[in-house]
Amino acid sequence: MKSLFTVLFLLIIQFFSAQDEEISYANGIFNFEENKTQKIFTDWTRVRQSPKVDAQILDSLPTNQQVLIIKQDETILKLGERRANWYKIFYQKDDKTSEGYIWGGNLCVGYRNKNGYDFLFGLTKTINKKDKQYPEIIINQNIAAVKVVEGNTLIDEVSFDTGSAESLSYGTFTIESNHKLNNVELTLKAMVSGEACGIASYDQYILFKNKKLVALPQLMNVGDADVYYHTEEFIFPNDKGGIPNAFIFKMEEMEKDDKDREKKKRASKTYIWDGNSYKLK
Fold first, then answer.
1. Which end of the chain is more exposed for a tag (fewer CB within 10 A), N or C?
2. With DSSP H G I counted as helix, E B as strand and the rest as coil, what are the percentages for the chain, rounded to 5?
3. Beta partners for 60?
4. Could you tell me the pTM of the whole model?
5. Which of 6-10, 94-98, 139-143 has the lowest mean pLDDT?
6. C-alpha–C-alpha distance, residues 78 and 85, integer Å
């Protein structure tokens, strides 16, 4: 049943991807509130006179530039799997105040400041890739990234998958402790998720050490009502005085057979952190 569910799940994604041109909505993660400050994610984002890709370019803004959202325009632009409104913005640059329009897909999904560093989370592009188990199926895969900036200087950046457009209903970006891992200053967690059954959510943990970002294996969670679910998580045992310099991957999966009987599967594996990198125990 799991194989059948997987095939159906991938076919659903492919079906919705094929309908992209007929869909006129923006991904929820690019829904930004008016009269709120945001930050530029895509370096040298173009500021235009009106909300169109062929409108006059007034300026370009670097990564980490702060802007004020004045108004969300109804016009939606789709690039790859990213759909976002245009926004009228106000900003200050080189002691000069200006305004114009930018595409929402170039803004940060989330940003945080800690210990003098700015951490930025956003989406960068869409790629086409073959499914590992079913190579005849082509998946539109979004790529996200987290950047760390000190002042106006980009210090480091890591990229990772974030699924298809259906997984971009909302996102979060948080800072956690270092989980008592040697040489780690703090832990970042980026998440994107969909709203419907059968649509996966993705959790990406990133360790920050010595001005470097280290991405941990990605976690995926998906469920279909009470028929099927697949959950993945990390446990940091040293938080409670357990195994030092380690984190544990845990997976649980449940599916119901034709007679409505539950069949569960669990797995775990331990990773050891040596202060610079991780490996399986």
1. C
2. 10, 55, 30
3. 46
4. 0.88
5. 6-10
6. 9
Query: Could you please report the per-residue DSSP string of 106-172?
Result: GB-SEEEEETTEEEEEEEEEEEEEE-SS-TTSEEEEEEEEEEEEETTEEEEEEEEE---GGG-SEEE
The pLDDT value recorded for residue 140 is 87
Q: At 214, list the tokens.
A: 């280290």
Assess contact for 149 and 61: CB atoms under 8 A. no
In order, the DSSP letters of 256-272 are E-TT--EEEEEEEEEEE
Residue 203, token pair as written in the block:
């959790």
The more confidently predicted of residues 148 and 94 is 148
pLDDT at 24: 58
Tens-digit pLDDT profile for residues 199-212: 999 999 999 999 99
Residues 6+ apart with CB under 8 A from 64: 39, 40, 118, 120, 147, 149, 152
Output the six-digit token pair for 140. 């539109």
Q: Is the dihedral of CA 22, 28, 34, 39 positive or negative?
A: negative
Rounded distance between C-alpha atoms, residue 138 and residue 128, angstroms: 6
Question: Phi and psi at residue 81, in whole multiples of 5°?
Answer: -100, 5
**Partner residues linked to 185 by β-bridges:** none
